[in-house]
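Honest question from a wet-lab person: if I give you the sequences of every part of a complex, can you actually get the arrangement of the whole thing, not just the pieces? Trying it with mine:
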Amino acid sequence: MIIKDDLKYSNEHEWVKVTGNKAYIGITDYAQNALGDIVFVELPEVGTEISAGDAFGVVESVKAASDIYSPVSGTITKVNEELIDSPEIINEDPYGAWIIEIELTDPSELDELMDDKEYEDFCLKEG
Amino acid sequence: MRDNPLIFELSVPGRVGHSLSECDVPSKCIEDLIPDEYLRKDLPKLPEVSEVDAVRHFIGLSRLNHGVDNGFYPLGSCTMKYNPKINEDVAALEGFSSVHPYQPEETVQGCLELLYKTGEFLSEITGMAKMSLQPAAGAHGELTGLMIIKAYHAYKGETGRKKIIVPDSAHGTNPASAAFAGFEVIQIKSNEKGGVDLEDLKSVMGNDVAGLMLTNPNTLGLFDEHIKEIADIVHNAGGLLYYDGANANAILGIARPGDMGFDIVHLNLHKTFSTPHGGGGPGAGPIGVVEKLVPFLPYPIVELKDGKYYLNYDLPLSIGRVKSFYGNFSVIVKTYAYILSMGSEGLRKVSENAVLNANYVMNKLKEYYELPFDQKCMHEFVLSAQKQKEAGVSAIDIAKRLLDYGIHPPTVYFPLIVKEALMIEPTETESKETLDEFIDIMISIAKEAESNPDTIKSAPHNTPVTRLDEVKAARNLILRYDFRL
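Yes, you can. This is the full assembly:
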């Protein structure tokens, strides 16, 4: 299982990569492995305002469809349209295949998220 | 040509399967009878084959299939019990099969009586005041029930109740139906015993909640002992309690949703009441309600007055029709036949044996597979393939390996709260010999996972087609014949 040390993690297995007042959000290696081959990603519309904990999209694998939750609040500024035709890039490169870019309204929410060590422990507990 | 060509690929231009007798009335061109705008310009691209080609094609396909008439079918949550053939005999009776839904009521009194009595039987079985037999299947019943919940709260002026609560172990149809009915879905956690987490439920209840959808026994096959407390929490906050009847095969003649405090119930006749399930359906998902919700049921409802049955449309608060005519009538006929042939004692035995069979198989297998909720189960139970996963064998591989033995796999990867879930529901109609054979096969697969995991990972080996590329199938949807091929 790959966990990167420059990202923040949620207990719903999303990762957050912060650059300035913006952040990229995707799902972790643990999540893509648990889901299996991803066949469809439902993306939100650019401009949508979301609060931390809101579902903003869906990843569908051969096993199940799962909501993707935003670990942070803000306005969606970009969506990764490559996922529409190539959802498998989440399986191939979960930390490269960002799903949305969001402009943060409350950067202090990042402090609530896990770092790589905490997330590793969290995944071990999940089994 | 491929092994199993499509019927379009068998087509030869000009070949016919029948010859019509000569027309005995003067013929007219279709252009003289139907306005030009309604006439198609191109001929339909129908396959042109002889009768014997068509028969061989479809018989051939049917032989590739697996049904409960072929073998064991422990597909959890689906209650794939054997469908007694007497049901078919009764449904085929001319008085049921040759009537027309527009016939005057006085000429179909028998059919109306059957609908009325089936409704009465199902009300008695569930402890509800009245049923509607219209919904075409379980999820349709859910949607109908949710529309009634909405109509009831609106009638009371409580339009702020926009949330429906579902546990995290719920059937996927529950949140889907609630969302489709325009509600916001709130998910609550299960406790360590697999039941509803009461504290979590209390924390989300309020005057914005329309109701709670619950399956009891739940999707882990476990009966929630706190059902009375759950009902009180929901009712005290002004909400309604919806019973997902998918697991009703565990409770017939033993416990009634009405007595547990539920306000609305749906039943899956194609599960609990032995009518065909799956592609051979159609299904039926009648709903029952408590007295205060009866005015909101879909119309028409069959009523009895002065010894005559009639269709009552005079229900001003009704949510209206949810299905053309009166539901899937022949399915209801089969249910009626089943209830009468079982009788009330027989129905109780159905559930007793369904529960006994599940507990028997569970206890024999828990030594070989992880059993995350190790307690007495009801009609089904959920194993986890986590132990086998260590050797690289997943639940899906075990499911595929079972196909090699002529057994339909259990439900896999559901409920979502169990990792590598294998959800097994033997049903009451299987003999001890069949259960023992299944147990032996499951044990041998567990051993094979240690000794020869590759055989499982590449299964199935003995089926007409081997491991299908599910990813390709999902990503490149081709759902019809492409004539340009």
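Two things worth pointing out. Residues 350-472 of chain B form a domain with the Aspartate Aminotransferase, domain 1 fold (CATH 3.90.1150.10). Chain B has three domains: 7-63, 86-341, 350-472.
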